[in-house]
Specification:
Layout (H helix, E strand, L loop, with lengths): L10 H10 L4 H22 L5 E6 L2 E7 L2 H23 L4 H18 L4 H20 L4 H31 L13 H14 L7 H5 L5 H22 L5 H19 L4 H22 L2 H32 L15 H15 L5 H15 L3 H27 L12 H19 L2 H4 L15 H26 L8 H42 L1 H14 L3 H37 L1
Antiparallel strand pairs: 1-2
Helix pairs in contact: 1-2, 1-4, 2-3, 2-4, 3-4, 3-9, 3-12, 3-16, 4-5, 4-9, 5-6, 5-9, 6-7, 7-9, 9-11, 9-12, 10-11, 10-15, 11-12, 11-14, 11-15, 12-13, 12-14, 12-16, 13-15, 13-16, 14-15, 14-16, 15-18, 19-20, 19-21, 20-21
Organism: Halobaculum saliterrae
Pfam families: Proton_antipo_M (PF00361)
Keywords: Cell membrane, Membrane, Oxidoreductase, Transmembrane, Transmembrane helix
Length: 586
Amino acid sequence: MVAVDPLIPPFLFVLVAAILVPLLGRRGGHALGVLATAAVVPYAWLVPGGEHLPTLLFGFDAVLFNVDGFSRLMGVIFGFIGSIAVLYSWASGADERQTAFALGYVGTSLGAVFAGDWLTLILFWELMAVTSTLLVWHYGGRAVRAGFRYALLHGVGGTLLLGAIVWHYVAAGTFLFTGDGLAGVVAPVLAAVGIGVNVGFIGLHAWLPDTYPRPHIAASVFLCVYTTKTGVYGMFRAFPEGELAIAYMGGLMAVFGAGMALLQGDMRRLLSYHIQSQVGYMVAGVGLGGALATAGAFGHVFNHILYKSLLFMTVGVVIYRTGEEHLEDLGGLWRKLPLTAVAFLVAALSIAGFPGFNGFVSKGMVLGAAHKKHYDVLWYLLLAGGVGTFLSFIKLGYYVFLHGEYDGDVRPANVGQKVAMVAVAIPCVVLGLYPPALFAVLPDTGSYDYTTYTVGHVQEGLILAALGVVGFVILKKPLSKVGRVPDVDAIYNRAGFYGTRALVVGVTELYAAVDRAVVAGSGAVAGAVRDPAGTLDRLGAVGVIAGDDALANDARERTDIDLRAGFGTSVLLVTALLIVALVLVV
């Protein structure tokens, strides 16, 4: 391997390009974006392991750029798919401002995975949330509200992760990665939930299907790659030795995501649920810990980025050429979009883990690790997720490319889109047919015994495929009658809206009541000061009306004595009421 000096962190290539792209025009800007992201691949591959760039960040020791096997893998695949996504953006009509936001997203993601300490990681983590939100917002329309919800949830997740990092610093006395994860008891819990937002833990996942179908089709290609995979990387840094509870959450994600995807009619919403499902395998691998499971998790990160971006590109071409996003409005497009149909087939077989495609290799490693460690419940969950994946993509492919006939005029994918899809489809096949090519990219996680193509493993893949086919035949008619299925966001979006409104109205009304009481009290005191005789007469009148001469005489005798004391008490009362109102409002 040829070594190069790490003169500057590679994310700077991309961030500088993000600034320059809007100034160069659409053609020149996209060309620069392709070159800047592509340059990250050889740079990340050739920089020797152990190279790092120490610095001070906010007055603390930090490592702005650190290279090991894990950051190297993330850098290589992030750079490669970033260049393909920029090319696809240009071919799909994205403007230079959108691509500038996308490059900012890519650059901040690279900053997070090349960070050598927790402080640098959280800085780029939060910047990644900002740049991805801007990428969503740029499209306008429905993407604006979705982007707001996306930003809000990721803000909560980032705050929890920051809390974990501060807690770790208090316990360990350093922000630097130590190889032991986060110190203490509280920090790992906060980190698991905070990072759980990014990877799509069940209950924290609804931003995925809510956001990714909304923006420009090219923006979805970027979005499907960086946030969740950076989350998996962060989860590994927090739990390098694994955590069984996280592994089981990964298994549940695999099943839940695949099940929800099967019920969707919107193509990009279906694909978004499958991000959660496939990230579940990665989270399960990280949670299991050990050499084989960790290698499988990061192998699946690498493979998933390839086939998931390819799936979004193929579906994007369908939307680009037809203007339709729902399955019921499409059909028979394999005749009009033949290369797109083939690319979809490659990606679908890859994500489903069919023998001969890259998903079969990495998914099998995670399944093999669960089986060898005798976590049978987790193993069955991951297998069930595999059946659901086959079902979902049989459904998607059937209704888009085979069933029926789309009436409109459809032109084939343009040259740029074809080049982008072919460039990603090829490694999906190569890495599946020749697994050593994938193993060469994986970080050194220790020794493990694993053979990809065994009779049992191939049979397992074929059985899952057969179950998927049979299941679709049985479920095709019931599934066609399913409408939009609500998710947990239907609860917390409404709860957040109406709860916030109730809080605002309650505080406002309470403030108004206090204000009325203060005004009334102040008016009474002011009246007494201006007209003490009138006040005396009124008090005496009260006694007369009540038939109580003693009360009237006592009132007259005490008026002069108590007037000043009463005035002081009233002032104290008014001041107290004002303080209460201020506290309630603040």
